[in-house]
Amino acid sequence: MIKKALTIVAMVSCVLLTGCYSLETGNPTKESKQVLNEMLGEWDVKDTFIETDNTSEVPIVPILQTYKIWQIVYSDHRGKERSFFLNNKGEETVPLYELNRNMERILKNEMRRISPDFDIKHLRLSDPYYFGYNGNIDINDEDFYKKHKKIYNVKDFKFTNYFKDNTAYIEFNHDCGQVAGTSSEETRILCKTEVDEFVQKIPHFNGVITVFSNEIVDYFYLQGKEVPVESLESQKGESILEKYENLVRERYPNLKIS
């Protein structure tokens, strides 16, 4: 009886309250067609789905949001079919978030291919200029195409020059563990050797590698060269990562979007 009464209250509340149900009508495959063509080359919609979420924080007053999901398929630089999903939920003008995650997967696969024994965890692709805006950027802006499209462009992707003259950098963790029969200092040196050998396989590497062993150490690289933490101290920023990003900005002032 109580459950039935609560259901009735919820139904009445949804009639009386506004915003209890929303139907999203946008279509990112049309709105972002130019973007997808530019970034993916040939692509297609493999499937579509309808989802409904209850966004209410009050269980007895459902606030339903119904939206559509598109499964996008395309072939990557190696001819392998890949897919990711777009939806018309939210206010993003372009699918920057999905394109970013898509490129993360491609980079991770490439690095594992050239160095299968190197442990790569929690990889994240970043850019100090504009990804902090949560994807709410007009990707049709001329500056974006001229200066920054390389970050998400898989149509013309080449791993050998991806990081060259590119403000993009990656962050990931590497667990090399404690080496049996060695001291902490010897383990640190062996771990650093692993990292250096890995970085040498990636031309113009930009990235931050956090190494877990008997201690946790961050190693910073810009265009394939290690950036000592001491040299980052003169950069602006509260955290060492902010200082690194400012160093990237200084290296490529011509790429800045106002």
Automatic annotation (TrEMBL):
Name of the protein described by the UniProt record: Lipoprotein
Species whose genome carries this gene: Mesobacillus maritimus
Source organism superkingdom: Bacteria
